[in-house]
Design brief:
alpha+beta; 3 strands; elongated; 5 helices
Length: about 100
């Protein structure tokens, strides 16, 4: 998925909370549902959205599917965002001088 799909995926507060939980440890959909007091189908919907955006990966172990962060996508986002701050630090943004 592209950058716009990734940003749309993280725009939802429930999905951001899921990502924060997965930052600490990999979890099953049931574990996530219990933490949020959400139905399994609601959690599955959010996990599906995060998987499409490649923010979350599945890892099968025995009869369970664990979800974990895909940190490489976050690194790409950070690099993209950093470029804007880097340009501003160089003094390329002269908005103050226009007044």
């Amino acid at each position: 998925m592209g950058m716009s799909e990734t940003l749309k995926a993280i725009s939802d507060p429930v999905r951001r909370n899921i990502l924060e939980m997965l930052k600490k440890e990999k979890m099953t959909a049931g574990d996530i549902a219990n933490k949020f007091n959400l139905t399994n189908s609601t959690v599955s919907y959010h996990l599906s959205y995060l998987k499409k955006a490649d923010l979350v990966k599945e890892e099968k172990y025995k009869k369970y599917i664990y979800y974990k962060l895909n940190t490489s996508v976050f690194e790409e986002i950070m690099v993209w965002i950093y470029q804007f701050g880097k340009e501003n630090m160089k003094g390329d943004n002269n908005d103050e001088e226009k007044d």
